[in-house]
Design goal:
The protein contains three helices and no strands. 85% of the residues lie in helices and 0% in strands. It has one domain. It is mainly α and 52 residues long.
Length: 52
């Protein structure tokens, strides 16, 4: 939530990342879903490190 306020493109990027993860799940592509989730979480972790 805070990231969406502090970074202009964060909401759009987050929605795209979540949509891609969901699409991979719906396609039963567990490896892709896992990879996309790891990339997403890593990005959030990196943002938190910079923000804190």
């Amino acid at each position: 939530m805070w990231r969406g306020i502090t970074e202009q493109s964060a909401v759009d990027r987050t929605l795209r990342e979540h949509a891609a993860i969901l699409a991979a799940i719906e396609a039963s592509d567990s490896r892709l879903a896992e990879a996309l989730t790891l990339v997403h979480v890593s990005g959030v972790e990196e943002w938190l490190r910079r923000a804190l």
